[in-house]
Design goal:
This protein is α+β, with helices and mostly antiparallel strands. Helix content is 41%, strand content 25%. A hairpin with a 2-residue loop joins strand 2 and strand 3. Helix 7 runs antiparallel to helix 8. It is elongated and about 80 Å long.
């Protein structure tokens, strides 16, 4: 399973604790936004263009055009959403596959997060409402929030009109670039052994322990353990800054993500999402290869992915 897929699943698992309201009316499931302007005299996206790839539950995926932008969507019943972990996992993979397909087909997208819906208004379908000003969009399983980040969205068309300039700027910023994941781990036991051998403060404390009585030794052993932990944390911070500086020179934008627990004795030092042109990947590869040569360091480099972490207005 890929790094990006695991990220999606972690996010979606939080949704499973919420009950999902069943609806029989047609809604729209949103995948991404792309440019609909002409390319070499021909439209990049045709009105109501359908895609060969299937959406969630094998639904038909199509493009909804609005001026110079297009939303890649799927019509569905909100009731098709499920809390079953197997369904969630498969649906996350499908969502990612559709966004990947659009990204490769059009070259540039602003992806929506998993489970973003445009809900129907009155007795009409969401598609019809989009033509006649549909009502709201929300993330199922969360408190209602719109694609634009507010509690209620009158309609997707209105939002696309309002955010057209911002979306165009964002698409221009993302053009020719992709997201890559970098996770660097280490074996702290190797560094700990160096500290116990070479650190003067640590050696002085060990000497003091040998000279004291049993009761005092117990307290000093506790102090020794805390000192080693502090030394390791200081080394980890220094290494993080060193690696971050090396990596940041070769990327356009970088985000520090939450570190994850790994199987001992490995510990994750840093978890980064990076945005960079695909042509710059060989330079970053060289930097990561040098880091991986260090004793006790492990590097994981994944991508290219659509720029989920950088698709924020």
């Amino acid at each position: 399973m890929t790094w990006s897929t695991r990220w999606f699943i972690r996010v979606q698992i939080r949704f499973q604790k919420h009950k999902i309201k069943t609806m029989n009316k047609k809604s729209l499931y949103l995948y991404c936004i792309t440019e609909a302007s002409k390319k070499k005299g021909k439209p990049r996206v045709r009105r109501e263009q359908t895609f060969r790839i299937h959406g969630l539950d094998r639904g038909k995926v199509f493009a909804f055009l609005n001026h110079s932008l297009a939303a890649v969507v799927q019509e569905c019943d909100a009731s098709f959403l499920s809390e079953d972990p197997r369904w969630v996992k498969n649906s996350v993979l499908t969502h990612q596959a559709v966004v990947d397909h659009a990204w490769k087909k059009f070259g540039n997208v602003v992806p929506f997060s998993f489970s973003t819906l445009v809900l129907p208004k009155e007795a009409q379908s969401a598609t019809k409402n989009l033509e006649q000003n549909c009502e709201t969009a929300s993330n199922v399983g969360r408190p209602k929030r719109s694609v634009a980040g507010s509690h209620c969205l009158k309609n997707l068309r209105e939002w696309m009109n309002k955010e057209e300039d911002s979306l165009k700027k964002l698409l221009e910023k993302l053009k020719g670039k992709a997201e890559y994941g970098i996770q660097i781990s280490w074996n702290p036991n190797l560094i700990a052994s160096q500290i116990t051998r070479n650190d003067r403060e640590f050696k002085e404390l060990e000497k003091e322990i040998q000279e004291k009585g049993t009761g005092t030794q117990y307290l000093l052993q506790h102090k020794k353990k805390n000192l080693l932990r502090q030394k390791l944390e200081a080394v980890a911070e220094d290494i993080f800054r060193e690696f971050y500086d090396k990596i940041s020179h070769g990327v356009k934008e970088i985000r520090v993500e939450t570190i994850r627990k790994e199987k001992p004795p490995r510990q994750m030092l840093m978890n980064l999402s990076c945005l960079l042109p695909k042509d710059d990947v060989p330079k970053l590869d060289k930097v990561l290869e040098e880091i991986a040569k260090g004793k006790g360091f492990f590097v994981r480099f994944t991508g290219p992915w659509p720029p989920y972490s950088f698709a924020k207005l």
